[in-house]
Amino acid sequence: MEGTSKIELIQGDITKIIVDAIVNAANTSLLGGGGVDGAIHRAGGPAILDECRAIVARQGGCKTGEAVITTAGRMPSKHVIHTVGPVWNGGKHHEDEKLANCYKNSLQLAIDNNCKTIAFPNISTGVYRFPKDAAAKIAVDTVKYFLSGTDKIEKVIFVCFDDENYQLYERLLTTYRV
Q1: Which of 13, 20, 37, 112 is catalytic?
Q2: Is the overall model pTM greater than 0.85, yes or no?
Q3: Hey, how many other C-beta atoms are within 10 angstroms of the C-beta on 137?
Q4: Is 141 a catalytic residue?
Q5: Under a CB-based contact definition with an 8 Å cutoff, are residues 176 and 134 in contact?
Q6: I need a labelling partner for 103 at 20 to 30 A (CA). Which of 14, 28, 60, 131 fits?
Q7: End-to-end distance of the chain based on CA atoms, in angstroms?
Q8: pLDDT tens per residue, range 97-156
């Protein structure tokens, strides 16, 4: 299927990935938090927080489904795209659409900033409790569809921290390659 050859899957630490941009599963305040957000802020250092504070001063944070970009600080990637995933609330509050928007808006922001390679964590599947299987399907479907309409993104890497997410993505990506 077109677009899947541009998609890679790895298990590991997103803060160590060498790409133009890594995506941060941020919160609306953009001021750091737990999970991948805290790990990115710790690994990247104060430059990320400084730029996030400037964004907050300019526009008042980041809404669910939207994305903003900063430096990656001390990490090997060039940029961090911060996107705010939805908190799972039973699936009756447009959570699927908001999660898909995280991927679409992050990819568009990557293109707008000449980023050709991008790495995504498993957005909203930690403390935001989005069901991992549904989140993986939305991520893969949205990225695959987006890539089918552009040649400006050369590679998307899904970076799974845990075994469960890795196996879900591996199954989905294998199915798409059939």
Answers
A1: 37
A2: yes
A3: 15
A4: no
A5: no
A6: 60
A7: 8
A8: 999 999 999 999 999 999 999 999 999 999 999 999 999 999 999 999 999 999 999 999
